């Protein structure tokens, strides 16, 4: 493996080279002052809750054993565990007493807004990108293996937040990303409909941006067969 012009051979040096590369990349997207301000703001807001008046009920209330059991039964198996070595299989097979303890830990984190250190630790595994020079650290895509217990807590919280956001209409209807039951097809469908209804015709400018036929995806062929006149117009947007 190469670090600049230098050849590195030991595992320790290689790991160090990856650490430096990832630290460099993550520094580019971090805004320390904003992070600090947001944390301070969150801490102040946490002192008293406007939603429930600190009664810790409704959306702020603890998770029930039923909530936990539902998430446990939906866990995907055969996934590599995080640094704590706890697999989803272990969580799935917990007995009633252990489930209660787990629920207490998750609810404690939810109530105090403290995330255990073990849930924030990750084992980073660099995976080589196809066709790239394997001697360079930049040719690897890192994946982070994190605690399945932490992920379980996150899933419980996400389900509650999603319900709140959807039921209170906080997410605009145009947003399809990160939403269940919606996909990019919805956006394409809307665009096709708009083009049909408004009768937007081809323009030389659009034609110059015409791209190669779209990827082999059934959604695309279904969409384009429904609207053969407009698919290339859409292709210029993607
Ligand atoms: Zn509250």
UniProtKB/TrEMBL annotation:
Top-rank taxon: Eukaryota
A GO molecular-function descriptor: RNA-directed DNA polymerase activity
PANTHER family, sorted: REVERSE TRANSCRIPTASES (PTHR19446)
Stretch list, region Disordered: 197-222
Protein name per Swiss-Prot or TrEMBL: Putative RNA-directed DNA polymerase from transposon X-element
Keywords, ordered alphabetically: Nucleotidyltransferase, RNA-directed DNA polymerase, Transferase
Organism of derivation: Amphibalanus amphitrite
């Amino acid at each position: 493996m190469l670090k600049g012009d230098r050849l590195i051979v030991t595992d320790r040096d290689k790991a160090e080279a990856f650490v430096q590369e990832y630290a460099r990349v993550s520094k580019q997207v971090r805004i320390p002052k904003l992070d600090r301000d947001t944390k301070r703001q969150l801490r102040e807001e946490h002192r008293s809750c406007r939603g429930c008046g600190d009664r810790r009920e409704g959306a702020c209330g603890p998770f029930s054993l039923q909530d936990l059991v539902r998430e446990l039964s939906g866990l995907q198996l055969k996934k590599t565990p995080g640094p704590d070595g706890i697999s989803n299989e272990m969580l799935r097979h917990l007995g009633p007493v252990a489930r209660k303890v787990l629920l207490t830990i998750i609810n404690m984190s939810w109530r105090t807004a403290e995330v255990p250190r073990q849930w924030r630790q990750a084992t980073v595994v660099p995976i080589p990108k196809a066709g790239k020079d394997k001697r360079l650290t930049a040719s690897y895509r890192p994946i982070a293996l994190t605690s399945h217990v932490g992920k379980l807590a996150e899933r419980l919280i996400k389900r509650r937040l999603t319900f709140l956001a959807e039921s209170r209409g906080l997410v605009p209807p145009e947003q399809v990303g990160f939403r269940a039951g919606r996909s990019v097809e919805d956006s394409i469908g809307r665009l096709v409909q708009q083009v049909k209804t408004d009768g937007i015709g081809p323009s030389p400018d659009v034609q110059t941006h015409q791209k190669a036929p779209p990827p082999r995806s059934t959604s695309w062929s279904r969409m384009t067969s429904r609207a053969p006149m407009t698919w290339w117009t859409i292709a210029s947007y993607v």
